[in-house]
Write a structure and sequence with these properties.
Elements: E1 16-20, H1 25-35, E2 39-44, E3 58-59, E4 62-63, H2 64-69, E5 73-77, H3 83-95, E6 98-101, H4 107-110, H5 115-121, E7 126-131, H6 146-153, H7 155-158, H8 178-199, E8 207-212, H9 213-218, H10 224-231, E9 248-252, E10 258-262, H11 266-275, H12 290-295, H13 297-308, H14 313-322, E11 327-329, H15 333-337, H16 340-344, E12 348-353, E13 357-362, H17 388-394, H18 399-407
Parallel strand pairs: 1-2, 1-6, 2-5, 6-7, 7-8
Antiparallel strand pairs: 3-4, 9-10, 10-11, 12-13
Helix pairs in contact: 1-8, 6-8
């Protein structure tokens, strides 16, 4: 584990969270809360547990991803389809401040674990429900994963090459399950807002937070919706360029790499022109302000490409850093792991995983003043049901009771 330099309490210490989720969205939501100090109990089906445990590359027979995805959580196995499993889940609901789930709408109700049942045992509880389309509406029951939310939310359409480039290929995904992660973030944000409202004495009732994957994606689509509503403009894919300001693009280097240059304000463009030894560019009427540069971006980008193609990536980074122009190589995860800025800020750290040994993890987000960032990384993802006996014992189940539950397939 990372070295803990102080004993300052994490912001959510004392808050209890129950996770009735699987895959990505709900578990990501609860990981954020766990990283901020909440006690998170994750309910998994007996046997293989959460499907993500088998996703991605394996090390020592176990998913490397799980080390991060399940970190700081306690795992209890429960068969929620079994009446006794439901009863135990309701016992856990009774002790929770926040409950998080991402089943299809109506699934909790079919298990006898819907909001009405939860409210009976926890009148002031907070239930976060993450689903593809939300808990109501004409297509609420349609199946959906993060990629579907990304398609319906609009981002998949924009993650494509500019028109005329590789038109025969489909739009690509971002590279991670961004729709799930966005929904998880909104779930955590909504839970904390409801918790604040409850703790401030403004609300004393069971609260349901309804988060849709599709809406989570749509909410970050910048000006796309008002541009269409006011102007009838449909934002189109722009490849690596930024359509609203210029120059911002990925430019080729002499050694076969690309560098991102974002000189998209008038002062920055002047600094770029000086770095290119082309002072006249900043005075050219075609490029003298952002509106002009956007209008003439194809010509401008070609001029910049002509310059970058004659220099290596290292040379360009040095020149542009000296000129104070925002620029960077496109980092691989290998680059990130070796980056001194991430290391200095403890955003890339090693955590001692009992299965994998020392394992690289991203640091907890965000950084709170007075709290060592490493103190949030308390343990790596647990094994399936690792804390079942402890958790059930806390609920006053004896060892004999627990063994009987195992035999009956409840845990």
């Amino acid at each position: 584990m990372p070295t803990i330099e102080n004993k300052t309490s994490l912001p959510l210490e004392g808050i209890r969270v129950l996770e009735l989720g699987h895959f990505i969205a709900a578990p990501f939501c609860t990981r954020l809360l766990a990283d901020m100090g909440a006690t998170v109990i994750k309910v998994e089906p007996p046997g293989k547990g959460d499907p993500v445990r088998s996703w991605g590359k394996k090390h020592n027979g176990s998913s490397a991803w799980w080390s991060v995805h399940g970190r700081n959580k306690q795992s209890v196995t429960l068969n929620l389809k079994h009446p006794k499993g439901r009863d135990i889940a309701l016992d856990l609901v009774a002790e929770a401040d926040i409950i998080v789930e991402n089943n299809r709408p109506g699934q909790l109700e079919r298990w006898g674990l819907g909001p009405a049942e939860m409210k009976k045992v926890n009148p002031c509880g907070i239930l976060v429900r993450i689903s593809g389309y939300g808990q109501d509406g004409p297509i609420k029951d349609n199946p959906a994963f993060g990629v579907i939310g990304e398609a319906i939310g609009g981002i998949r359409y924009l993650t494509d090459h500019a028109a005329g480039v590789a038109d025969d290929l489909p739009p690509v995904r971002v590279g991670i399950s961004i729709g799930d992660s966005l929904a998880g973030m909104y779930g955590a944000l909504g839970a904390l807002a409801a918790l604040h409202q409850r703790n401030a004495g403004q609300v004393e009732e069971f609260k349901v937070i309804d988060v849709a994957l599709s809406e989570s994606v749509l909410s970050v689509m910048e000006g796309c919706l008002p541009e269409y509503g006011l102007l009838g403009a449909v934002r189109r894919p722009s490849g690596s360029a930024l359509p609203s300001c210029a120059p911002t693009n990925a430019y080729p280097t002499s050694d076969g790499n690309f560098i991102i240059i974002a000189a998209n304000s008038d002062p920055l463009f002047k600094q770029l022109a000086q770095a290119m030894s082309s002072h006249e560019l900043a005075e050219d009427p075609l490029f003298m302000d952002n509106e002009s540069r956007v209008r003439n971006v194809l010509k401008l980008d070609e001029l910049i490409r002509k310059w970058t193609r004659n220099l290596t990536l290292d040379e360009l980074e040095h020149i542009l850093a000296k000129a104070q122009v925002p620029a960077s190589r496109i980092y691989t995860i290998e680059d990130i792991a070796a980056n001194e800025q991430y290391a200095f800020r403890k955003m890339v750290v090693e955590v001692d995983d009992p299965i994998h040994g020392m394992t690289l993890h991203p640091g907890a987000m965000p950084v709170f003043s007075g709290i060592d960032r490493n103190s949030a990384l308390r343990w790596a993802g647990p094994t399936v049901g690792e804390h079942t006996e402890t958790i059930l014992s806390d609920l006053k189940y004896s060892k004999k009771d627990i063994e009987k539950l195992r035999v009956e397939g409840v845990v």
